[in-house]
Hints:
The chain has about 475 residues and is an alpha/beta fold. It has helices at about 10-15, 25-35, 50-60, 100-110, 150-160, 175-180, 215-225, 245-250, 275-290, 305-320, 325, 330-340, 345-365, 395-405, 410-415, 440-455, and strands at about 45, 70-75, 115-120, 165-170, 185-190, 210-215, 255-260, 295, 370-375, 415-425, 430-435.
Amino acid sequence: MTRPHDLSLAAQIAALRAREIGPVELTAHYLGRIRRFADLGGFAEITGEAAFARAAALEETSPNGPLWGVPSAEKDLVARAGVPTRYGSRARLAHVPSVSDALAEAMDAAGAVSLGKTSTSEFGLTGFTEPLIHAPARNPWATDTGAGGSSGGAAVAVAAGLLPAAVGSDGGGSIRIPSATVGVVGLKPSRGRLPLGSGFDSPDGLAVAGPIARTVEDAALLLDALVGLAPFSYATAAPGRGPFVGAARRATPGLRIGVTTVSPWDDDENIVLDPAARAAFETATAWLSDAGHAVADADWHPVGYPALFRVLWRASAARIPLSDDDMTAVEPLTAWLVREGRSLSAPDLLGGLTEARAFERRTVADFAAFDAVLTPALAQSPRPVGWYAGHDPERTFAMQVEYAPYSSFVNVAGLPALTLPVATDAGGGPVSVQLIGRPGGEAVLLSLGAALEDRRGPLPHPPVWGA
């Protein structure tokens, strides 16, 4: 018998609108799964009572809003009034905001039903979700491995059928890394694409909100909803702007595709591409060529990236409002990052930002000959839980780069990127690739991603799916 979580997001929305299932029933189904699989660490807070009240109220209304009745959750970096919002940190253990962030309010306006908070790394600073405040987010394909980060809880929830889809945030790979780790679709939009979580919220312009879903079409559907969450947008409304779900359903023939396994860290860190990651990359390359696209080596030679990103990473931590007392409660890596960031001089910071904008211009120019560029999503297989523990901060940073060297530069360049699984490894776990688009080029990525998905065919679900 088909269960609600067996259906795509699109199918669940259709069932809700046809009154074949109600918001209360759907909410109960997902809350049951969240509680049953709590040991996966997908959720930092469950708000069952509020969710049922919200779902019951919706049942008294006509379906309206793009996400009417759809269960959702906020990453634990997004404040919701009256709900503990801890930012993955012991320094915010008792924090209960009185005012919601705009993204939470907008999701409510779209008709979604919040079931709680998905787990994140402390203040979203790392590419793994193992904060000391609660249990780690575990990969449902192999629970002795981590789920990546910092939207690790959201990716786990989608992969394990605890949510139909989720909204994450990505400042250096935080949507794409966990999505690739657990084998779901992760989309980082262009800087400025979304009215909320646009990337223009901070001086470095790195972090954007974006969808995590089980299919490319579902990611496109959620992107359409996110684009419409506020009555304004920015200048990246390029040709092909929404409805993006149409792009995921429409083939785009004869594109120029660049391919590369080069990362901007290759001369600075020990980047070794895992055989399964290389095989998935080569498979996707062949499929794109077979589909009639003009596939060529991107011939990319980035320079000067590691130094500028180290400045941006430290500076991003410096903005976290932590007092001296708070610094005794945060994790050692966070404390180090905050102190390092606050010790940056104005010339250091401005120099890093200037170099970042120069890198953006060079990268956009380097990729201009292509409609999309294909890279591996990750360089290594999922890392064991605790892999990053016990190392000094510099080594922890290097280990994250070795795992995901293809992620952060996309944020610096402000480009859209899509990760999706195309193959399985020797143990049956998913292996993903990344497609990078032109500024405002989400529609092309969705079209290509859907074509790869069709060529791949159905992948198995993780073991918890059928339980």
